[in-house]
């Protein structure tokens, strides 16, 4: 049995009837994939996808973080489902179906995943929507699960079966869980002290806290002091500017309902812009999101004078690390949405992203992990819900979450069906804003998924239109040079 880490547990604890921690992906496929094909593939490869085999074991009285225990009898008939779109099977109909499925909480008595084969998509295509609870995977381990089901040719590769006689994981009974939990309660004050020591130099990059007067000054002074005391002569960590989070139509308490839209952007065009202005692909992605959100806010007569503040998740894993558990943190940056000129906006986004990259390379931000570790397990659920209630009454600590995940640049297949596109489906919460834009690069394309609260952003497909428009605008300016 493996215990969930503190961040894993936070993804369980913040869930309510409206805040749901499912992450997933919408695969667009060509070919005649059947539910039988899919179940046969899963049966052969389930041993390669650990999150699909694990279910939760909760500690009595909530004294400690839950454990993952292997489910020896996975009911694929429950987890793998099959539905069809009504005619004409448009992209918007598929988006509506995915939004409904994504908003439903997973059954915590079973392994935390579901898979839906969706027929009837126009153009002789089909879709495969998969959702997994965020407590079970982060970006790296989620990609590993996806890779275990994919092949580089139409003919599925035969993989080695799980080795016979594999030793079972250590089983921990309820009594032992309680004893371990009580022992952690005793040492928890030490975790709080460690958090305070480690977090003070990073106050200016923790959402909400960074807005407090003097947070940047305190961070800078403590970083300088720590450097002098250590005598290490380490490079100076650049200071973060104070970011005021403006209120927008997608700030505040979200509903239980979602909207989902998707699009694909040519990677060739993105690279054309990248090369012309001396920026990175990720800079272009962030600028496209800034331009699209600016256009949406202008349409709704709600563009604030201050730039939007985005949360950018990034992995804390070292190269080659495939260990279980969420190892992520969040950096905050401005989006220059107040800038009308698209090139000036792109360069402002580049400068803002360069700042957080420089900080991360010198002092990786682990405040999310340390803050989660600090809180006694029995109180984390109450603390998470209290924090979300606080955020719901304000503009929140950030306006939007934006992620850019690199993926393979070769065609892939699922049981012979070619993967045409893979659109991420992420999370919106009271704390992170009512819209999330996630990008996955695959086979010459940037596949975008936009998830939003239905009440806040009912016209979510206009956001994908504006993403394409912003890219075309930048491409036109490049070609005019």
Word description of this protein:
With 481 residues, the protein is α+β, with helices and mostly antiparallel strands. It folds into 2 domains: 2-156, Chloramphenicol acetyltransferase-like domain (Chloramphenicol Acetyltransferase, 2-Layer Sandwich), CATH 3.30.559.10; 244-407 and 431-480, Nonribosomal peptide synthetase, condensation domain (Chloramphenicol Acetyltransferase, 2-Layer Sandwich), CATH 3.30.559.30. Helix content is 38%, strand content 21%. It is built from 13 helices and 15 strands. The protein has helices at residues 6-13, 35-45, 76-79, 91-102, 139-148, 174-199, 215-230, 267-277, 281-299, 342-362, 367-374, 377-392, 460-480; strands at 2-3, 22-30, 54-57, 67-70, 80-84, 113-121, 125-133, 258-266, 309-315, 328-334, 400-405, 412-414, 417-425, 435-442, 445-453. The strands form 3 sheets. A 6-stranded mixed β-sheet has the order 5-6-7-2-13-12, sandwiched between helices. The protein has a 6-stranded mixed β-sheet with strand order 8-15-14-11-9-10. Strand 14 and strand 15 form a beta hairpin. Helix 6 packs across helix 11, helix 8 crosses helix 13 and helix 9 crosses helix 10 (342-362). It is globular. The termini are far apart. The mean pLDDT is 85.
